[in-house]
Specification:
The protein has a single domain, classed as Lipocalin. It has 131 residues and is α+β, with helices and mostly antiparallel strands. The protein contains two helices and seven strands, in the order αβββββββα. Strands 1, 2, 3, 4, 5, 6 and 7 form a seven-stranded antiparallel β-sheet that branches.
């Protein structure tokens, strides 16, 4: 258990230090970035890191943060996605203290058209959505 936690933490730290964040969208809440250098393919599935940098302090269950990093997995054939890992950070662009983290994957979800997940799915899968 300790080894798994250490490996996860090292992955987060190394992805932070070497991240090449590319701005992919923004709204009134914040700006979304992807790191295409982290794309890892396995068959029809792809994993990629992304980051949301918020304009104002966010709170969730007593947790306050200015940035959120995620490792998501995308099913390019079924147009689905799921969160594999998330960390929330006290400073913008993933800096400061980690205020929350979870490595419990969520269930697969459809990629909603026009959503942030759709933008990231297209970057990860490298092809236009089917209709």
């Amino acid at each position: 258990m300790c080894k798994a936690l250490l490996v996860t933490l090292l992955a987060v730290v190394s992805s932070s230090a070497a991240a090449e964040w590319v701005r992919v969208g923004s709204n009134t809440t914040g700006t979304m970035y992807a790191d295409p250098t982290t794309i890892r393919r396995a068959g029809g599935r792809v994993k990629m890191w992304n980051l949301v940098d918020f304009k104002t302090l966010q709170t969730d269950g007593g947790d306050s943060y200015l940035a959120k990093k995620e490792l998501d997995e995308y099913d390019c054939e079924e147009e689905q996605w799921r969160l594999l890992y998330v960390s929330r950070h006290s400073e913008n662009m993933g800096g400061g203290q980690v205020t929350y983290s979870s490595s419990s994957p969520i269930d697969w979800r459809p990629v909603p058209p026009g959503s942030g997940a759709a933008i990231l799915w297209k970057i990860a899968c490298g092809e236009p959505r089917r209709h």
